[in-house]
Amino acid sequence: MAEPSLAKIAYQTLQQGKGLVGIAHKEISTKLMEILAPEAIPDTSPITTDLLLDLRRSIKDLEEIDWLDAERGLYPKNLLFEAPWIDWFIKYPLVWLDMPSTWKRRKNKKFQDIPHSINKEKYPEYYLQNFHHQTDGYLSDHSASIYDIQVEILFNGTADAMRRRVISPLKTLISKNYSDLNDSELKIFDVATGTGRTLQQIRSAFPKSELTGLDLSASYLKQASKYLNNSDNELVQFIKGNAEKVPLLDSSFHAITCVFLFHELPGEARENVIRECYRLLKPNGVLILADSIQVKDTPKFSQVLENFHRIFHEPYYKNYLKDNIDVRLLNNGFESISSSSFFMTKVWSAIKS
Ligand SMILES: C[S@@+](CC[C@H](N)C(=O)[O-])C[C@H]1O[C@@H](n2cnc3c(N)ncnc32)[C@H](O)[C@@H]1O
Questions:
Q1: Is residue 193 part of a domain?
Q2: Which of 138, 195, 214, 215 to mutate to test the pocket of ligand 1 (most atoms within 8 A of CB)?
Q3: Tally of domains within the chain
Q4: CB of 289 within 8 A of CB of 260?
Q5: By CB neighbour count within 10 A (0-12 exposed, 13-18 middle, 19+ buried), where does 306 fall?
Q6: Exposed e or buried b for every residue in 208-236, given b needs 16+ CB within 10 A?
């Protein structure tokens, strides 16, 4: 077997480092919570050693496929090392400062703690909540400024590796369905783009394509624009809007991605988003969805999924875990539906018939 290259060792070391930071952060914050806010401690089931080993193996598999996809040229290797490190480092203390209010919200079961300045009529009711006890929900610059770091910690540094799993099916299906087009003619739409981390991965894989991101949070979009529209690259367009009713014409895009949205939507909204994606895609358009793994695909991780639900305010997660997304895709006209799981993420691909 060939020796791993220096770059691969550097990648593995970075991932191990991020994993250790994530674990240390969680251990220390749990200890602090036990001392300062014991009433906020969630009632979780212990993770057995076997399960822990399975989780570690699953992370290794994810990192291996991430590395292989870079070696195959699906995206540049330097993407594996990219993040706004200095910005994250500066903002990291804010995550700690934010913690007491998170504990308080959890303890008091206060889940609709949204800034008073927000005009609630502009948002669907299900959205006006503190998902994962997030301060201000998704509706402030403060929330947007620490979201990426919180997600990295939650997934022990694997969040971007999971987001990148959309790229392989995206590239494969685009080159199959639109072989006559070059990258600069492609229009790709990222639904619920948040702070734009998925779009950043996509841009590295499709540097010349026209990219658009949509989200309900102006604050998250500002953050996304700050990260994505700060160089000589093509301008990424951002739209503030509801994914259930996108203010764009039919057949606007060759491909649509949607990452980590569905577990935060009620079933009816999931259905509406899928219908919108179908409407917005051109004939033979490619839809790639990514979200939490579901119980039926990965029963060995059901304890982890249950704990996630107990620790964080995720009101629609339980329903999502058993939702048949394949049937929803099929009923809305999609075909060639397939899915695969990578660590904590399941990725669906589907084609507009
Ligand atoms: C868990 S975050 C995922 C963000 C991003 N895709 C990522 O990979 O980090 C969920 C995002 O969905 C957005 N969102 C939730 N409901 C939405 C809706 N109905 N329409 C548009 N965006 C929505 C939130 O504002 C938030 O940015």
A1: yes
A2: 215
A3: 1
A4: no
A5: middle
A6: ebbbbbbbbbebbbebbbebbeeeeebeb
CATH of the domain at 338: 3.40.50.150
Any atom of ligand 1 within 6 Å of the Cβ of 215: yes
Tell me what pLDDT residue 177 has: 98
Cβ of 243 below 6 Å from ligand 1: yes
Nearest of 214, 216, 220 to residue 195 by alpha carbon: 220
345 lies in some domain: yes
Q: Please tell me the distance between residue 228's alpha carbon and the centre of ligand 1 in angstroms.
A: 17
Residue nearest to atom 13 of ligand 1 (CA): 192
pTM exceeding the 0.85 threshold for the entire prediction: yes
Strand partners, 26: none
* Residue for token pair 């029963």: 299
* Residue 28 Cα to ligand 1 middle (Å): 29
Nearest ligand 1 atom, CA 217: 25
**Tens digits of per-residue pLDDT, 150-209?**
999 999 999 999 999 999 999 999 999 999 999 999 999 999 999 999 999 999 999 999
In a domain? residue 331? yes
- Domain containing 206 equals 172-298+318-352
Question: What is the arithmetic mean of pLDDT over 75-103?
Answer: 95
Establish whether residue 224 lines the binding site of ligand 1, counting it when its CB lies within 6 angstroms of any ligand atom: no
Q: Could you give phi then psi for residue 280, rounded to 5 degrees? A: -80, -20
pLDDT band at 1 (very low <50, low <70, confident <90, very high): low
Distance CA 218, CA 238 (A): 10
Instruction: Check: CB of residue 163 under 8 Å from CB of residue 195.
Output: no
Q: Which residue has the tokens 């990578």?
A: 342
Give the pLDDT confidence of 279-322 residue by residue, as tens digits: 999 999 999 999 999 989 888 898 888 888 888 888 999 999 99
Which of 302, 293, 289 minimizes the C-alpha distance to 341? 293
The alpha carbon of 262 and the centre of ligand 1 are apart by a number of angstroms equal to 9
**Residue 8 is assigned to a structural domain of this protein:** no
CA-based nearest residue to 346, from 42, 23, 131, 62? 62
